[in-house]
Every structure is written in C-alpha cells, then in structure tokens.
Design goal:
Helix content: 10-25%
Structural class: alpha+beta
Largest sheet: 6 strands, antiparallel
Radius of gyration: 16 Å
Distance between the termini: 42 Å
CATH superfamily of the largest domain: Jelly Rolls
Shape: globular
CATH architecture of the largest domain: Sandwich
Strand order of the largest sheet: 1-2-3-9-4-7
Number of helices: 5
CATH class of the largest domain: Mainly Beta
CATH topology of the largest domain: Jelly Rolls
Oligomer: single chain
Number of strands: 9
Amino acid sequence: MPNPLSVDIGKRLRMLRQERGFSIRELARKCGLSANALSTIERGMSSPTVNTLYLITEALGVPTGSLFGMADKKEKVVFTKSDSRARIPFVHGIWEGLGGRMFSGKVEPFVLNLQSGADSGSGMITHHGHEFVYCLAGHLEYQVEDRIFSLRPGDSLLFASRLPHRWRNPGDSDTKIIIVLSEFPDGDTPSRGHFLGPSRGEG
C-alpha cells in the first residue's frame, strides 16, 4: 500500500515565505522565532515542533493545507482515501488531513498521531467555533479551563473553542486522536492556530 503523501516542510515554508515577499528576518520577527531557527527549518536541518509550525503558518497568513501545495478549490463532497491523505510530520507526531482544506463547509477534521510526551505547548489555546475530540488509541489529557479530562480509546470531548484549552500525551505509548473543528467564521482556518498556545486576535 502506498505511503500517505509526505511533505518537505522546509522547502514548502521557504517557497510560501518568498511568494509573500518576506525575508527570513521579517518572518522570524512576525512569528516570534529567531532568524537562525527559521533558517535551519527551511534548510531541512531541524524539524519544527507543532507549536512552531503553526506559529509560522499563522504569520504567513496561510492555511495548513498550503504546506501541501493543494489547490484552493472548495468542493461540496470530499472523498479522501486512507492511503493518499496528506500528512505533516512534526516533532513528536504526525498531522493527517481529512479533507477539510478542500471542503466548502465550516468543518475541519484531522488526525493527530502523538508520541509519548507530545503536548500542545505551555500556553492555553482559544479560537472560534466548536471542538470535538475522539480518542482512537492511547491516552490523552485535555484541559478545558480548569478541568482536566482523561481520554482513553472510545472516549470523546466536545466544547466551545473559545474556552481556554490544551492537550498532552502523558502515557508511555503513542496516542491517536481525531479532532473536528467546526462553526468558524468565513475565511478563518482554526487548525492553523490550534496548537499555538494563547490566541492572537481570536476569541
């Protein structure tokens, strides 16, 4: 069976940066990273953490799907084969798209494969719409405001995304979850900032 589509993250980020006319220093300043850190990512010398990846795409003003070079055409029906869906490897995990980039509705589903110790960062996350989380395998802790929910296979969580939240894999084994973000405003791309920590201008 063919492997899912993988992406040269550094090459794609460099192309998107250049298309928008940013120098490395300008983009680094915009997303809060050092120019050296951004340069090593673009040259493929280091892999971005999930926080860093979404910080960069937010600063570029592009949806996650832009990393795949996908067309912007939106469809009413999107069928995604399991052996051909796009994915982005990041430190401690893999993000897999489930068609949200090409769907005309306000729904963005994706899969996260998380290694032991993976987390969304030290800051709390907020964004527009609603969030649904379903645990397929492993163990996941999801904090929403001051409550901590322990998800095991078959467990789910649903909440308003404006509530501060974050997640982590506290177990010794890999965790696999599906996240569905919905009911966000036109033009918004909530997964782009989902793992950023504190929201920037959303809420």
